[in-house]
Specification:
The chain has helices at about 15-25, 25-30, 60, 130-135, 240-250, 295-300, 315-325, 510-535, 545-570, 585-605, 620-655, 660-700, 710-720, and strands at about 35, 55-60, 65, 75-80, 80-85, 95-105, 115-120, 135-140, 145-155, 165, 175-180, 190-195, 215-220, 230-240, 260, 280, 345-350, 350-360, 365-375, 380-385, 395-400, 410-415, 420-425, 430-440, 440-450, 465-475, 480-490. Helix 8 runs antiparallel to helix 9. Residues about 1-55, about 255-335, about 500-505, about 700-705 and about 725-735 have low confidence and may be disordered. Strand 22 (about 410-415) and strand 23 (about 420-425) form a beta hairpin. Strands 10-9-8-7-13-14-2-1-15-16 form a ten-stranded mixed sheet. The chain is of the alpha+beta class.
Length: about 725
């Protein structure tokens, strides 16, 4: 929708307005303060130095006559920050000069500005914060050095291709200075003054237009973050058309258009009478509408209007929806509730992570100041991962009252068992201000870590991109298995931090995973072991063992199929499906395929070949080959299943914060093994007794008469043993 299309003109005022609109043109209609939001819920005060939204105001809405005699106009950028400027002259020396002043007032010295910055961007309608800043030019005044200079903003970080001072020959500012004044009440006023050419000799510098809209950026550094260039305490943007302000000042008019650039949720274009609002999603196509109320339009035309009732804007509705979405998981707000930190994410109901970026200091390499807070007493870990998984990652672990580790250290996470979690060498222990403290049953892990370490094997943390972080909270102060852990993605510079972890399963799927575990355990800890042991000890039930064996195998197959379907379905319905991305998934698939083959193969066994006998492990008949394969597959499946069950118990405990039940499972295996061993010992004793009886019969019967074998068979059958059956567990040589 174009600006003109977005305006609703009613009734008798329509004809009066048309001529006015044609005269004013798009100069007045497209003017709109803009906001890049979506990082924190609406309602956060624009005065908060921790806020992560960037409000792009329109000078045409906010300007008024300057309170300083040296300047023509001024506008409030945010509470405590005012921008003054002069109209560029029509001709002569002042025609190509833009003079301005930024005044920042803080109530305390801690909140005083360490630097003030004003930049100009060549992007009029940004689709993201990065697009607004990167590629811009800026005037930055640093209080500690009294230096005012022009800078390139190549990225969010300082460096050769990032934020760097322009070459000396391009430092063309006139009468530029930065000053501070401390009031009797303790307030601190910081003033950045300058004169800049609208068009510089270097064609690469952005031209400030006199007769068109310019997009300006501003930023305020805080003394609490350092006395030089440090991460900004607040920043924003505004748009200014010098000729438009001159025109409006002559007419004595001030508009109130508002356009909002917002992420993360796209909003469908919707026309609202009296309060049209535009939502432009980050990285989404830009739509533009006008938010002038009809009352304001009629006022501009000097006509009478009816009162227009207030309506809820799209932005309000969308923000409310976004807040509900964030509250459902782990992100309450981006602004930290700790005055020592700028940002915060709430990982869960008891755990928060606070941080500052320190990327501007000339004395130290870029780093992140972090604090992990847990409402309880336990060891804490905060790590850095390629993909959100634990193994292969690195972590900062703080263990209260540990004998060997008197402070938090960096660890390599080689595996999930404690023995493979080892501290990095002393040369790589580069943490600063690292400590773990406990007070009032609250555990706090604080640290300062370099974004890029000298050792290239360590993972690098991105200051202006998405990172994969992991965390863990122990069950106590003793380092061991954690009571819960997870992973989340976070952009440290923009507070873009939806907690979304494929490793931390949503609790709404807990019942499904319980069902998966119960069904799989019935299959592989009950049904299949019963089938195997029945075959091993079939002479105990020689007439019915085959039916028990087949029934248990078929039951195990169907239980495995049900467990497999539950797992695949639950994973598919998760926020981030990751099918067959874990060893547990792979082994589960192998078990499903193998047990299917095993059951089908059982129904296609070759017939018994009575006159051919296989000796040893090398089969000489089809039945012998089938029998060997069936036995080996059964043993392999049982061993894989035992590993799978204990691994599943560990995963469940890991995902949902329970103590693992592997000890009970291992106890069950031990009991089962003891029972099988005892039964085997009893069968061996029975075998020895049968041999003794057979030997006694052989010595007293005349074999030449042909009655010996029949008598031996009779004795064997009397003792429950069929020496002619190939299914006997032991081959008896009774001849």
């Amino acid at each position: 929708m174009t600006p003109i299309e977005s305006i609703s003109i009613r009734g008798s005022n329509r004809s009066k307005m048309i001529s006015k609109l044609v005269a004013i043109g798009s100069l007045l209609l497209v003017s709109a303060p803009t906001t890049v939001m979506g990082r924190i819920p609406s309602g956060t005060s624009s005065t908060s130095h921790r806020r992560a939204d960037v409000i792009i105001k329109q000078a045409s809405d906010e300007y008024k006559a300057s309170s300083e005699s040296l300047y023509d106009h001024m506008m409030t950028l945010e509470e405590g920050l005012v921008f003054h400027w002069n109209d560029p002259g029509e001709d002569g020396v002042g025609a190509n000069v833009f003079s301005g002043r930024i005044v920042h007032v803080s109530e305390t010295a801690e909140r005083a500005a360490s630097y003030l910055a004003l930049g100009v961007s060549n992007v009029e309608f940004p689709t993201s914060e990065s697009e607004l800043m990167i590629g811009s030019d800026a005037i930055i005044g640093v209080v500690s050095t009294s230096d005012v200079a022009k800078y390139y903003l190549g990225s969010r970080m300082p460096g050769e291709n990032g934020i760097r001072k322009m070459e000396d020959e391009k430092q063309t500012l006139i009468d530029s200075k930065i000053q501070t004044h401390v009031g009797d009440d303790g307030s601190v006023t910081t003033i950045l003054s300058f004169e800049k050419n609208l068009k510089e000799d270097d064609s690469k510098e952005i031209v400030i237009k006199k007769d068109a809209r310019n997009t300006f950026l501003f930023a305020v550094g805080l003394q609490s973050n350092g006395d030089g260039l440090s991460y900004h305490g607040s920043r924003g943007a505004f748009q200014l058309d010098f000729d438009e302000i001159v025109y409006l000042a002559e007419k004595g008019q001030i508009g109130s258009d508002i356009v909002i650039f917002k992420d993360p949720e796209p909003v469908a274009e919707e026309e609202q009478i009296g309060s049209d609002t535009v939502i432009i999603e980050d990285e989404q196509p830009v739509a533009v509408t006008n938010t002038r109320s009809e009352a304001e339009i009629d006022t501009e035309a000097n006509t009478e209007t009816d009162a227009i009732p207030e309506t809820e804007t799209d932005s309000e509705t969308d923000t409310e929806s976004n807040n509900k979405e964030y509250d459902s998981d782990a992100l309450d707000a981006c602004a930290s509730d700790d005055p020592d930190y700028l940002h915060m994410v709430k990982i869960n109901s008891k755990t928060k992570f606070h941080w500052n970026l320190d990327v501007w200091s000339n004395d130290t390499p870029p780093a992140v100041n972090g604090k992990l807070v847990f409402e309880g007493q336990a060891w804490l870990g905060f790590g850095f991962s390629f993909d959100g998984s634990m193994i292969g990652s690195e972590a900062i672990i703080g263990i209260p009252d540990h004998e060997d580790f008197d402070r938090p250290l960096k660890f390599k996470l080689g595996a999930k068992n404690v023995g493979e979690i080892t501290p990095l060498p002393d040369a790589q222990q580069t943490l600063l201000n690292a400590e773990i403290t406990q007070k009032n049953r609250i555990t706090t892990l604080t640290f300062k870590k370099l974004l890029s370490e000298d050792n290239t094997d360590e993972l690098e943390i991105s200051a202006d991109g998405m990172n994969n972080f992991i965390y863990a909270v122990g069950t106590s102060n003793t380092f061991g298995y954690h009571q819960f852990r997870g992973s989340f993605k976070l952009d440290l510079s923009s507070c873009n931090s939806p907690i979304a972890s494929s490793r931390h399963l949503p609790h709404k799927s807990k019942a499904a995973w319980v069902a998966h575990g119960v069904v799989a355990t019935l299959a592989w800890a009950v049904a299949i072991p019963a089938a195997v042991t029945t075959a091993w000890f079939r002479t105990i039930v020689p007439q019915t063992w085959i039916y028990i064996h087949v029934f248990c195998n078929v039951a195990g197959f169907f239980l495995t199929l049900i467990a497999f379907i539950i797992a695949v379905t639950t994973m598919s319905l998760s926020n981030e499906p990751a099918h067959f991305s874990d060893p547990h998934h792979i082994v589960g698939l192998v078990l499903m395929l193998f047990v299917t083959f095993q059951v089908m193969n059982g129904f296609f066994r070759p017939p018994v070949e009575q006159k051919k006998i296989d000796y040893g492990w090398i089969p000489h008949t089809a039945r012998g080959a089938w029998h060997l394969l069936h036995r080996v597959m059964g043993v392999v499946l049982l061993l894989l299943a035992f590993w799978q069950i204990q691994n599943g118990l560990l995963l469940f405990a890991d995902h949902f914060g329970y103590r693992p039940m592997t000890n009970f499972f291992f106890a069950y295996i031990i009991v089962l093994a003891i029972a099988c061993a005892g039964l085997k010992v009893w069968l061996i004793a029975e075998q020895d007794r049968a041999h003794l009886q057979a030997a006694s019969i052989n010595s007293s019967i005349n074999i030449d008469k042909g009655i010996g074998p029949q008598a031996v068979h009779k004795v064997a059958f009397t003792n429950g043993i069929d020496p002619d059956s190939e299914l006997a567990p032991v081959q008896f040589d009774l001849q």
